[in-house]
Amino acid sequence: MTVATFATQHPVGVLDRLPCRLVDPELFFAESPADVEAAKALCLDCPLRAECLAGALERREPWGVWGGQLFVHGAVVARKRPRGRPRKHPLPDEVAA
């Protein structure tokens, strides 16, 4: 879906009130896992979440949060790993999940 098509399908002013338009756009392309989770949380109440995700999949977005999902190298992933090497032994919280 192109931006022009998207804009003509929704009432004037709706796009300006979307959660992704009310915060710094860098949040949706953050390095920090906490910031990525915050961006995903903003998408939860968005009325255009499904359309945003479908558009990102169609465009094959390489990275960022789109429609409440995280894209890394063009694929949807559950969560962003922190930088650095993974732990040798998982924390008790990670074992339970």
From TrEMBL:
Question: How does it get modified after it is made?
Answer: The Fe-S cluster can be nitrosylated by nitric oxide (NO).
Protein's gene = whiB
Could you list this entry's UniProt keywords, alphabetically sorted.
4Fe-4S, Cytoplasm, Disulfide bond, DNA-binding, Iron, Iron-sulfur, Metal-binding, Transcription, Transcription regulation
Designated name of the protein = Transcriptional regulator WhiB
Cofactor binding comment, as recorded: Binds 1 [4Fe-4S] cluster per subunit. Following nitrosylation of the [4Fe-4S] cluster binds 1 [4Fe-8(NO)] cluster per subunit.
Q: Where in the cell is it found?
A: Cytoplasm
Query: Where do the 4Fe-4S Wbl-type domain residues begin and end?
Result: 19-76
Superkingdom of origin? Bacteria
- Pfam families hit by this protein: Whib (PF02467)
Q: Which residues bind [4Fe-4S] cluster?
A: 20, 43, 46, 52
Q: Which cofactors, if any, are listed as required?
A: [4Fe-4S] cluster
As for family, the record states:
Belongs to the WhiB family.
Do you know which InterPro entries this protein is assigned to? Answer: 4FE4S_WBL, HMGI/Y_DNA-bd_CS, Whib
| Keyword set includes Cytoplasm | yes
Source species taxonomy = Bacteria, Bacillati, Actinomycetota, Actinomycetes, Propionibacteriales
The main location class comes to cytoplasm
Q: Report the PANTHER family cross-referenced here.
A: TRANSCRIPTIONAL REGULATOR WHIB7-RELATED, TRANSCRIPTIONAL REGULATOR WHID-RELATED
The protein's job, in short, is: Acts as a transcriptional regulator. Probably redox-responsive. The apo- but not holo-form probably binds DNA.
